[in-house]
Amino acid sequence: MESKCLSSPSTMANPIPIPLQEIIPRKNTLKRAVEVTIFFLLLSLLSNRLLSANYNNGLAWHLAFLCESWFTFFWLLFINVKWNPLQYRTYPQRLLNRGVELPPVDIFVTTADPVLEPPIITVNTVLSLLALDYPPHKLACYVSDDGASPLTFYSLMEASKFAKLWVPFCKKHNIQVRAPFMYFSGGSDREHNMATNDISPEFPQEWRKIKKEYEQLCHIIEEAVQKGIPCELTGEFADFSGIEGRNHPSIVKVIWENKENFSDGIPHLVYLSREQQLKHPHHYKAGAMNVLTRVSGVITNSPFMLNVDCDMFANNPQVVLHAMCLLLGIEKEAESGFVQYPQMFYGGLKDDPFGNQYVVLMEYLYHGFLGLQGPIYAGTGCFHRRKVIYGLSSEEAENMGRNLDVVNGKSLEALRAKFGDSIEFAKSANQIMYGTNNGMNRSRNLSNCIKAAIHVASSVYEYNTDWGTKVGLVYGSTTEDLLTGLSIHARGWRSVCPDLDSPAFLGCAPTGGPIIMTQMTRWITGFLEILFSIRNPIFATLTTKLQFRQSLAYLYLLLWGPYSLPEFCYALLPAHSIFTKTHFLPTVSEPAIFILVALFIIYNLYTLLEYIQCRLSIRAWWNNMRMSRIITSTACLFGFLGFFPKFLGLSDKVFDITPKDQATSIQGTSVEDADRGRFTFNESPIFVPPTALLFVNLTALAMVFLDGSWLGLGEIFCCAWMVLIFLPFLKGLFRRGIYGIPWPTIWKSATLAFLFLYFSRQWVSKG
């Protein structure tokens, strides 16, 4: 067991300081053995093909060899990620016992559309963050609203009033779930407090009062939503008058200020809507995050920053303390460049019918990444060192700790050339990066900083600076989070992730077919933008400090899109063989058939064991296995094919916001769970390939039954397996409405299936 710690004055007298965290290697012997076995079975399959190669091998055989070679390579990348799993255990009470002053933290919440991201969701996230177990005068919460919506601002104003009741109530009674909608819908905290003997006698009365106040808050916000414009656009709302959501000047409002820096007060709450003009690029979420970084830099300038999506509320009230155990408790700063919590979700449907709760993925991949250079930056639930976001490398940070000449800082002119022409921001950056003190004072009146904040939030501020390239979140990909994390790792920093008893943050997972496909397509496009750029991990490991195995781990993610092509091709080969009365798989009489049988059984048992270890059902395992194949043939395939027109400049795809399900997010589960668990469709062409694939395999099975020929049992089994995988699409053929496949999609798919059958037969006749 390895442990590192940060020495403090209170612990210097002790020969062995008590660590704030420890690293615990995970036992992985059995899983390694199974993974290696699968790898050698794949190699055996390839070897058998090479040994049996001859001039009579048909098209299907050669395509199968190429596909299986790709699967083998991809499995090797997968093994690399999971080979050395670690976990970090943190001890926040030890941090508090040290008696040292805790560092301030700036919190960023991003939202972009009051319709797709209802204000009540943002409000609950903000309230959960304001009530964290951390000194309130050390926290400042900034909400970025790219929609410039008076409705969002109005909701936050009302929420700040409720926070004056909610925050003291949570801390007085040690409430664990601090998002009001979740607390009042679950009741677990209340039942726990009611059953506790030493609970204050006034708790039931206070609980009823707070609940009534929250219901009133929800009612006020709902009325405002229905009206569209919450009030007269005068006074505090005058800045919202006559503006457009995507074309307006900067708006910065201090909603609540802890003026006296009371340790038992409410954290600062600041509203921001950056300037947007149609003629200037705004770089979507990455641009919003960079503006948040600059605005907070000229106002509070905390050395650490937490960013969350508007639907990702703080589920663990000690989340900041756990992060500080890693950011302060590891001896070398380079070992903890950022702390990334896993994304986890609440209100998920039973057995995860859409395969998008990612429980197993987060459990095993995150711990695998910890054994390398650290987890990827996921765009939410992440604590950053401000100096890292400002482009500092691990080597520069280490040298500044040793070389006093460097600590004297750089000239303001040099910093302005890098960070922009704001003198206030240059001074704040100098303080963060080089430890100088140029008058930045957290206790000053926040309203005095509004002018400087509006200046750094302008749409032209970043021109001729390093923002988006060497400073801040990196532009150039719709998955700006992954690209930024890659850039941080390339500068020599590591990332970490603590294991908590209760999840740090919880968000709402999208439901239904179209929404899931839209989200995944965006991810795949972003991955490919990174892969086909100068910043891809292969170049980075050759020219920067990105470790080789970490680059392979990034490559595993970036190749999800290209992986779809060989998998889709392989799914067509069994039907092609039946149509042409050929074989691409070993027959029952050949010994090589045992390789395929062993691969199928061992792989499925291996994945099933992972789900059982995560306390998930067999049905959940099957749903995830099925959805991974469906997503590969839909979103991954379309993201891969759609990337190249954008790459060649033939199209300009707009960033799509994933709608947040307000019914799920706020009201919890309902009697409509069964309907919400059914696959939904629309007329998007993304559903054509899997529907065509279903028709192809159904046609192949029909031909087998009509011909009465059962010679290619391997191919027949594969066709039946594919029909089982795409069962939601088979059901969609007989349903109507959003649960049925539209007729245009059916006709297009049937045409493609017929053409595949025709050309398969033509290929044989020509051969």
UniProtKB/TrEMBL annotation:
The chain crosses the membrane at residues 59-79, 553-573, 593-609, 630-648, 713-734, 740-759. The keyword Chaperone does not apply. UDP-alpha-D-glucose binds at residues 117, 146. Keywords: Cell wall biogenesis/degradation, Glycosyltransferase, Membrane, Transferase, Transmembrane, Transmembrane helix. The active site is at 146, 481. GO terms for cellular component: endomembrane system; membrane. One of its GO terms (molecular function) is cellulose synthase (UDP-forming) activity. Mn(2+) binds at residues 285, 309. Its main location: membrane. It is found in: Endomembrane system. It is a multi-pass membrane protein. This is Cellulose synthase-like protein H1. The keyword Transit peptide does not apply. InterPro entries: Cellulose_synth, Nucleotide-diphossugar_trans. GO terms for biological process: cell wall organization; cellulose biosynthetic process.
